[in-house]
Amino acid sequence: MRLLIFGASGQTGQELVRQALQRKHAVTAFVREPAKLASLASSIAIASGTVADAAAVAAALPGHDAVVSTLGVGTPLKHDPDVIAGVGHIVRAMQAHQVRRLVYLSFIGVRDSRPAVGFVLRYLAPLALRHEIADHEAKEARVRGSQLDWTIVRPPKLTAGRRTGRYRVGENITTWTPLPLLSRADVADFILQELASPQYIRRAPRLLR
Fold first, then answer.
1. pLDDT (0 to 100) of residue 127
2. Which CATH number fits domain 2-208: 1.10.230.10, 3.40.50.720, 3.50.50.60, 3.30.565.10?
3. What is the pTM of this model?
């Protein structure tokens, strides 16, 4: 599969790139700073640009089978309108170039998934992360409003742990762990499994241990 990954230079994005290569996918990384992927540069294609640039996003789309967004925020705990606009650019470019499959990485504290978790993510995180959660909700709305074959993935707080394959997936699963955690490696594992054998098209599964 020919994958275009937005946010590929972030921690989750880099893990996704590595696992995609292990599974023999052809990867294009859309990044603002290609130097951050120097160690992988010989194995992937690089599309340099910012998602705030609609033309750069559109130019990267042709020739791909699927798109994954692991885009974060430019500054933690801050509102990032450029990334919100960027998700809109991705959706419109995919529709224009007839690339239908999109996986968007969100967060389990967003929207209807918030009651699925324990005290910290249900009551405290929305205060500290209010800008990031609001941004995710705005980006999810752009994805949901499209005609694409999208999947919105909602994990809890991410860690640098190893890939275990021991996680639960579902739209209605819950946990009472005060602060649930999941490794980025397991999130990448699920995303690639979902791309290979789609079960959650136009759905928003949660990922939990």
1. 53
2. 3.40.50.720
3. 0.93
